[in-house]
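Possible regression after last week's pipeline update?

I re-ran a chain I had predicted before the update to compare outputs. Posting the input and the new output here so someone can diff against the archived version. Not blocking, just want to make sure nothing changed silently.
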Amino acid sequence: MRLSFRNIDDVVRVSDHEAVVMSRHLLKQDGLFVGSSSAVNLVAAMRVARQWSAQGREGNIVTVLCDSGSRHFKRFWKDELVAERGIRLQDSIQDIMDDPEA
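New output (post-update):
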């Protein structure tokens, strides 16, 4: 089987910091306890949506919340460990969406 990239429009890089902030936002605001992959997917989808909006582009953006936070409880959801790695837990979702270097 050969891998084909013809259906991929773009790739979006998301930092650990952005994923952590998004996951905490989803839990607090929406009651969704997601894993790191789901958080990364949503950050990327929101970033693409903002880019499209700025360009006047319309369309649908689809992503998948593909994992639960329960499998990530000992690392990704451990605030002490995350803080030790220099990730600012106090940042809001707006902080990461406004700062491309977040």
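Follow-up from reviewer: compared with the archived run. The first helix runs from residue 16 to 30. Marking as no regression found.
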